[in-house]
Structures are given as C-alpha cells and as structure tokens.
Design a protein that fits this description.
The chain has helices at about 1-15, 60-65, 110-120, 125-145, 150-165, 165-180, 185-195, 200-220; strands at about 35-45, 55, 75-80, 85, 95-105. It is α+β, with helices and mostly antiparallel strands and about 220 residues long. It contains eight helices and five strands, in the order αββαβββαααααα. Strands 1-5-3-4-2 form a five-stranded antiparallel β-sheet, covered by helices on one side. It is globular and about 45 Å long.
C-alpha cells in the first residue's frame, strides 16, 4: 500500500493543479497489464520454428501478430524486406544485419490476477490513467531492446547515467530493464526519474508526464 500512497498523491496532485484532465471514470479493469510481453534483440535472427511468413508489415504489426497467437513464442522481423516470421520456438541466435528478433514472455497468472484486483481500487481515476499505463507497457518491448543485457546490468548503468545528469538515457535503460524483469520496483523507478526530469520542450514534457503516470500505475498494479 506504500507504493499506492505515493501514486495516489502524485496523480491527485496533478489533477488539482490542472496538469491532468478529469474525465470519465475507469471501468474496464480486465486488461490492466499486458498478458504477454516481448524482449527484443537488434541485428539478430532466430533459426527455425517459423509458423508463417507475413509480408509488407511494420515491426508493430509483426509483434501484434505474434502476441495474438498463443502458439507464437518468438519472432524475427526483417527491416529491409518488411517481413515478419512468427515462430513456435526461440531458436538459436545468429547475427543478421537489419533483423530484429524477439522472445515472448507470458505474464504470471498470479500477477495478472493481482493487477486486475488492484485496478478496481483505481476506479476513482479517469479511464485514461489505466489506459496510459497499459499503452506504455505494451509498447515498451518494441521501443527499448535489451540486446541480451540483464535487468541488473541495465539498472546499474542507468544509475550511472543519472549520476552524470543524463536522465534521458537513464529512463531508456530502465525501460529496457523492464523487458528483462517486469518488476514493480523498476516501474516506480521510472516514475521517480520522470519526476526529477525537467525540460523546456513541450513534446518532451508531455512524454515525461506520460511515463510518470505509467510508472506509478504500473508499479502499483504489480
């Protein structure tokens, strides 16, 4: 409940000062966190296990096709040919320039159940708060490849970047760590870094507010 207290104060404070709009209240809590997530590797091909071949698609569409198929455990996307290869198994890795490969991880059913229960306690918030948390979590794997680094290593480098004043890179590395270990602590770390991050750029400020809310709500849900 300590995590919730911090998140509660953060969001309500933003509403009071007008940073965040008040809209309709959250009703749909069945899909508050992704049931499956991907861990990406740049310039890597996965051998064998092809379920199908899909052409003229984007990386996002390739990821969606795999995640929609319970039998898909991985995929390789050829950026040069815009071709997608959903796979039944994450085979042996080999270097392939222009390829992006991903392994799929299913969220633990207990974590899913906890998230659904906790989402119901956030019904006083506008719909977009949970929607923002889910949207950021869904895109995270695609935006921040881990490239084989562990969460512990990525978080250590993130702390070094924060100490150097590079909060942009610290946030990127922390998001990448979340693709290795989807932990509440790392989501809360995203919210902390976002609240520390200052920018004069309007688009950047919008992004910072988005990840601050996503970090808080995802940390609580997990």
């Amino acid at each position: 409940m300590r995590i919730f207290g911090r998140f509660h104060k953060m969001v309500l404070g933003a509403v009071v000062v007008g940073l965040l709009p008040v809209g309709s209240f959250a009703q749909n809590t069945e899909s508050s966190i992704p049931a499956r997530r991907v861990t990406l590797f740049d310039n890597v091909d996965l051998y064998g296990g092809d379920l199908s071949k899909i052409f003229d698609v984007t990386l996002e569409e390739c990821e969606a096709a795999c995640l929609a198929n319970s039998g898909c455990k991985a995929f390789t996307y050829n950026t040069k040919a815009s071709a997608c290869f959903p796979k039944s198994v994450a085979g042996e890795q080999s270097e392939f320039q222009g390829a992006i490969s991903a392994k799929v991880t299913n969220t633990d059913p207990g974590v899913m159940a906890q998230a659904q229960a906790r989402a119901k306690t956030l019904a006083f918030l506008p719909d977009w708060v949970l929607e923002t948390g889910l949207r950021v979590a869904q895109r995270n794997g695609r935006w921040y490849p881990t490239n084989g680094w562990t969460a512990a290593d990525l978080l250590e480098i993130a702390r070094e970047k924060e100490a150097d004043g590079d909060l942009n890179r610290a946030v990127q590395l922390t998001f990448a760590a979340l693709n290795d270990e989807d932990s509440a602590a790392s989501w809360i770390e995203i919210a902390r870094l976002a609240n520390k991050w200052k920018s004069n750029d309007r688009k950047r400020r919008k992004f910072i507010r988005e990840i601050a809310v996503a970090g808080g709500v995802n940390g609580y849900l997990r």
